[in-house]
Amino acid sequence: MDFPGGSVPFTPTLTFVGGTFSPRAPLPCYRTIDAAGHAVGEADVPHVLGQDTAVRMYQTMVKLQTVDTIFYEAQRQGRFSFYMTSSGEEATAIGSAAALTNDDVVFSQYREQGVILYRGFSVQDMAHQCFGNMHEQGRGRQMPIHYGSKALNFHTISSTLATQLPHAVGAAYALRLDKKQACSVAYFGEGAASEGDFHAAMNFAATLGAPVVFICRNNGWAISTPATDQYRGDGIAGRGPGYGMAALRVDGGDARAVFNATAEARRIAIEEHVPVLVEAMSYRSGHHSTSDDSSRYRAAEEMRQWRARDPVTRFQRWLIDQGWWDDAQDTAARQEARREVIQALETAQKAPKPPLSAMFSDVYAEMPWHLARQQAEVFAHVTAHPDACPADIPVK
């Protein structure tokens, strides 16, 4: 019968669906490269990953690992205040980034620096941002690792979980109205999927037919909260059909599988004007951030086992099997990445900070009265209390 809420069949049987009443097998996890780095022979590969793209993906992974290692050490040395690595999740970020175009609009969480790096953000840009110097696009008004680039269609990262998801839906709907052959892409962790913004975004996207690709990094841990304490359903992908949305679970440690999953999700989203949900199963092999010690809530053996499944090494072995990479190239790439990262840090640290007045600029073409008053109050306070302003920030 056609009810206002939907057309449904009748049944004389009293049967509950889901939960303990009719348990279902978990959604399978799509994979094209096995744990040893060898191709899965029968795997569906609708989007062939060519040599040039594959090598660029791997080189970006190497650079990202180097950035994470050295920037983490720099934070520990007190050179800047905060950092987060993407250890164990490099394939999810870079595999998906390679399947997008620069016309696609990215709304990221805080562990997708590999996406913006692949799109053209330089290591020097990353260093400027972490130091918050005058060359950084946000002019020091964001926490470290909160990257953004208008030129690269990468919206500035927000610390607040899931706020980017409704924004991504709105951007996708605008792309559809403008008849653009592009989509928006929203990244988030499985912990963020517990926020209300996640559910609102999913429902709006499905109802409006917004071409948005939701990419969930399910790394098993929302800081110190394990997935077993976060949900009882079939992960995050299992929620897609409930919202009338196509969903796929992919091995987040398999860069080729993530590339194909994202490329196909993007095709469906644009051609059919629908949202698609992709859940990348992975593991955060590093600490949540430099403010975290994950050994307090995870077993050392668990972390050791997962670090041995490094997705970068796995993709490297596949490249070698294709005859596209060798040990000499690898050594050269890692040495060059180390030189580039160290030089970027040294350059960024020497650059001057933005002036104090930068706190009040860049938002309005003409400063409104309330900001002008606040700026005057700040300068009066600093004049009366010189120690209130860090010595390296020009008072002007």
UniProtKB/TrEMBL annotation:
Enzyme class, UniProt record, top EC level: oxidoreductase
MF-aspect GO terms: branched-chain 2-oxo acid dehydrogenase activity; metal ion binding
UniProt keywords, alphabetically: Metal-binding, Mitochondrion, Oxidoreductase, Potassium, Transit peptide
This protein's GO CC annotations: mitochondrial matrix
A Pfam family this chain is assigned to: E1_dh
Top-level taxon of the source organism: Eukaryota
Parts forming coiled coils: none
Cofactor(s) needed for function: thiamine diphosphate
Domain Dehydrogenase E1 component per the UniProt entry, residue ranges: 58-355
Enzyme Commission number(s) from the entry: 1.2.4.4
Record's catalysed reaction(s): N(6)-[(R)-lipoyl]-L-lysyl-[protein] + 3-methyl-2-oxobutanoate + H(+) = N(6)-[(R)-S(8)-2-methylpropanoyldihydrolipoyl]-L-lysyl-[protein] + CO2
Main location class: mitochondrion
Locations listed in the record: Mitochondrion matrix
BP-aspect Gene Ontology terms: branched-chain amino acid catabolic process
Family, as annotated: Belongs to the BCKDHA family.
Protein name: 3-methyl-2-oxobutanoate dehydrogenase (2-methylpropanoyl-transferring)
Organism: Chlorella variabilis
Source organism phylogeny: Eukaryota, Viridiplantae, Chlorophyta, core chlorophytes, Trebouxiophyceae
